[in-house]
Design brief:
This is Clavaminate synthase-like protein. The protein contains 10 helices and 17 strands. By secondary structure, the chain is an alpha+beta fold. A hairpin with a 5-residue loop joins β13 and β14. α3 crosses α7.
């Protein structure tokens, strides 16, 4: 548990203001700080002018955040995001036997539904969130049968709900949003190339080619509301009360702004603002500061993963992050819906002297699913 003394956090504000402001909320001191953000239009045109912004976001300076926000997205993004995140909530309302029909033990729950299977930071299996995994770019990868057998976590076939009332259009909504985020991510990777080339152990590698693989994986997340088993948190709740501190094992991860839904039993679900100023995503800067990240609903964020850290021999570091519930009575009956896209190389790509991406991934998955029966 964290100390009950006053804590200082940085709230990431993705706009151009450069001044800092101290805000006191519920006996906590929050420091406001500007985030690095770039326009989508600058990714579509020759992106050479973005080098400074990318270095600010992803570099190794102590104040680098390891995250960048892309604004001015095409107008269809807002509808794609809202549609899928509402379906995440709807899927979670299905009864447990129905949800479990779409779980896939042989892939270590890396396709379809996963709940209560993942172990995070040595804690008991995580029941605070449920996830739906799929590759939004390719339904069935075309690889050698030996790879299919060796890496079912990446080269399995997508699993989609069939004829379930209330989640009509789930497959198309998932694939449409995932493909949109992937396209933006590839453009951003191309813009990062001039900066990243000097850090890559093999400067001939292309980031956009590395992530244009058959291992792309999207994760649709539903964070369950507080319950008798997981009651509303106190003011001194851990920062990682909804999801433990970790780094992604991707090269680059695309993130949507979360959607909060209040659903009182017997009533209709309603999208609401964040129920607490302390609820949401937190990261640690390269210098170790704790930062609360706010992603505007009409923007995407991209952060660095551990595969990039290994590919650059530690010169570009992964971004540690977690999710906090946030204390307050208004959090009752409120769930959090979000979407992450993990962009990474194929399993045979060597990312360090010691490991390929596939070998590295197996090691990470062994840590998180060490007791899962895959028979």
């Amino acid at each position: 548990m964290l100390s009950t003394r006053t804590r200082t956090y940085l709230i990431l504000i993705p706009r151009y203001a450069t001044r800092r402001t101290i805000v006191n909320l519920a006996n906590n001191s929050y420091q406001l700080k500007t985030a690095v953000n770039v326009s989508y239009n600058s990714l579509v045109s020759p992106p050479s002018s973005l080098s400074h912004s990318i270095e600010q976001a992803f570099g190794s300076r102590s104040d680098s955040l390891g995250i960048i926000i892309v604004r001015d997205l095409p107008p269809e993004y807002a509808k794609l995001r809202e549609r899928l995140l509402k379906l995440a909530h709807a899927f979670a309302q299905l009864d447990e036997p129905t949800r479990e029909k779409y779980a896939d033990a042989k892939s270590r729950y890396s396709f379809g539904w996963s709940h209560g299977k993942e172990v995070m930071n040595g804690r008991p299996a995580d029941t605070l969130k449920g996830s739906y995994y799929a590759n939004p770019v390719i339904d069935a990868p075309s690889v050698h049968p030996g790879l299919l057998e060796a890496y079912p976590e990446y080269y399995g076939t997508n699993i989609w709900p069939k004829d379930e009332r209330g989640i009509e259009g789930f497959k198309s909504a998932f694939k449409n949003l995932g493909s949109f985020v992937f396209d933006v991510g590839v453009r951003l990777a191309a813009a990062c190339q001039p900066f990243a080339s000097s850090y890559l152990t093999d400067s001939s590698l292309s980031l956009s080619n590395l992530i244009s693989s058959q291992t792309t994986k999207a994760r649709l997340l539903h964070y369950f509301p507080p319950s008798p088993e997981s009651p509303l948190p106190a003011e001194d709740e851990p920062i990682d009360s909804w999801c433990g501190f970790h780094v992604d094992h991707s090269l680059l991860t695309g993130l949507c702004s979360a959607l909060y839904i209040k659903h009182i039993p017997g009533g209709p679900p309603e999208a609401i603002p964040s129920p607490s100023p302390s609820s949401g995503l937190y990261i640690r800067t390269r210098g170790g500061e704790l930062v609360k990240v706010t992603i505007p609903p009409d923007c995407l964020a991209f952060q660095t993963g551990e595969a990039l850290e290994l590919t650059t021999a530690g010169r570009l570091r992964a971004t540690p992050h977690c999710v906090r519930v946030g204390a307050g009575d208004s959090a009752e009956h409120v769930s959090r819906e979000t979407f992450a896209l993990f962009m990474q190389p194929d399993v045979n790509q060597r990312i360090s002297e010691a490991e390929t991406f596939g070998e590295f991934s197996k090691r990470i998955l062994d840590d998180h699913y060490n007791d899962v029966n895959v028979q």
